[in-house]
Specification:
about 300 residues; alpha+beta; Arc Repressor Mutant, subunit A; ECO RV Endonuclease, Chain A; five-stranded antiparallel sheet; 11 strands; elongated; six-stranded mixed sheet; single chain
């Protein structure tokens, strides 16, 4: 994950802000830990295994407002931030308030004035997230007209945000990146096993998280619907489709050799393969034969090779 430039040259010198920024950057230089927190928080709120939901617009208004609380809790669990005395956290010995807004319009109460704000924004549809630091000051803040006098950052305040990561990639929710017609086809069967089969048949060559499998299966032992003993791996093998797991180095290596999407830990990728008559680029040797990735609608479907959990 590419680290983006930090802040702007117009911010005043703020040693505590620099200390906090440095501490977070040291703990998570690539941003992968924070990216996973945002992914997990969306999935936690959707609760897809029980509800089948996977989109922001499927949530109730009260659930959407709860997202900021969950982010605050999940970031603290991931990074073991100490409880603040007056704000949410203590990071590197400094009080820090945690704020989330889907539009980066963080609401700052009067008691936050003078303190550091760890502000975040995320977009599941775009698979992006941002986290930045800024100090809430009178000159940085619009004065709220509401009863509790909460305000937002003004133009100067927004310029002074020190972005730790800006529009960084988040592990994708593949159900948001396929067509509505394909999503409907996946969810159409009444059987959880049939839905999982259709997921790997329809969303080939794309990273599929375990949570997506749980959302589609809506069953307790959802990973059983993937395994070779009667699950999707068994059914789809006859269609020439293999399923590769990011939890096994050998399967990740197979994905790389085939030149297809590479599953990360906790992810799966399905791909249709056909035997190659000669050694080709982006081919792999399995079951004593050489295989290459095929196009999704290839008519030459043949029995796929077996994939070992290693």
């Amino acid at each position: 994950m590419q680290e983006l430039p930090l802040g702007n040259i117009h911010s005043p010198n703020d040693s505590p802000l620099e200390n906090v920024l440095g501490w977070i950057s040291k703990q998570d230089p690539s941003g992968i830990r924070m990216a996973n927190v945002f992914r997990q928080t969306f999935d936690q709120l959707y609760d897809g295994q029980r509800t089948g939901r996977y989109r922001w617009d499927q949530l109730y208004k009260t659930e959407k407002t709860h997202f900021g609380t969950l982010i605050e809790i999940n970031l603290q669990r991931e990074f073991d931030f100490a409880d603040g005395l007056v704000m949410d956290y203590q990071i590197a010995g400094h009080e820090v308030d945690c704020k989330y807004s889907a539009t980066a319009s963080w609401m700052l109460p009067p008691e936050s004035i003078g303190h550091l704000i760890l502000g975040s924004v995320a977009d599941d549809q775009q698979s992006t997230w941002s986290v930045g630091l800024v100090r809430a000051t009178v000159e940085n803040r619009n004065v709220g007209m509401n009863r509790d006098k909460k305000g937002t950052l003004n133009a100067l305040g927004k310029q002074r945000i020190r972005w730790i990561h800006k529009d960084a990639p988040m592990p994708p929710n593949i159900l948001l990146h396929i067509s509505a017609a394909d999503a409907a086809k996946i969810f159409a069967p009444s059987s959880g096993q049939a839905r999982v089969n259709e997921l790997f048949r329809t969303a080939m060559n794309q990273r599929i998280s375990r949570n997506v499998v749980a959302t589609v299966a809506q069953q307790r032992d959802y990973m059983k619907r993937v395994r070779a003993n009667g699950g999707a791996r068994t059914t789809l093998r006859s269609e020439g489709i293999i399923i590769l797991s990011g939890d096994y180095k050998k399967q990740v290596s197979i994905a790389k050799e085939l030149g297809c999407a590479i599953p990360q830990e906790g992810e799966l990728v399905s791909i249709r393969v056909v035997q190659a008559d000669i050694a080709l680029a982006n081919s792999v040797e399995l079951d004593g034969a050489r295989w290459v990735a095929s196009v999704k609608d290839n008519a030459r479907a043949e029995l796929a090779p077996t994939i070992q959990n290693q």
